[in-house]
Amino acid sequence: MTTDPSCLFCKIVAGELPSTLVHEDERTVAFRDLHPAAPTHVLVVPRDHHADLAAVSAADPGLVADLVAAAVEVARKEGLDGGHRLVVNTGADGGQTVFHVHLHVLGGGPITGLAG
Ligand code: DGP
To answer: Closest Cα to atom 16, ligand 1: which residue?
Structure first.
């Protein structure tokens, strides 16, 4: 397992920092965003540390599919029957602030404008 001891989300995955878990499986963990941008706002992260989408795509493309499948499962569990939005901020210009790749699952009402 690849971890970065200085990474915030690695610490959440390891249980060293608190979070509100929504879903977990062998390769992914999902927890509520600390600063929700929608009524339901969940972050889906890999247990392994990969800085961003480019890094995980290069190192482990199957994990990208696992992250998307986990996000779909989160939407189902959270009852987002009216739909939801997946957002992956990538790099500084994309608005990424935590450099452990994560999918934002946003829903619980109409999502207007760009979310992230
Ligand atoms: P991004 O900007 O795409 O890198 O999103 C990072 C998200 O992480 C942002 O929406 C806020 C959230 N966040 C930052 N620190 C914490 C934390 O300590 N716990 C939780 N649950 N979420 C956090």
So the answer is: 34
Q: Is 100 a catalytic residue?
A: no
CA of 100 to the centre of ligand 1 (A): 10
pLDDT in tens, 51-100: 999 999 999 999 999 999 999 999 999 999 999 999 999 999 999 999 99
13 touches 7 (CB < 8 A)? no
Which residue owns the Cα nearest ligand 1 atom 23?
Answer: 34
Would you identify the CATH topology of the domain 8-107? HIT family, subunit A (3.30.428)
**Whole-structure pTM value:** 0.96
Biggest alpha carbon distance in the chain? Answer: 38
Interacting residues of 79 by C-beta distance below 8 A, sequence separation 6+: none
Domain ranges of the chain: 8-107
Q: What's the CA-to-centroid distance between 99 and ligand 1, angstroms?
A: 10
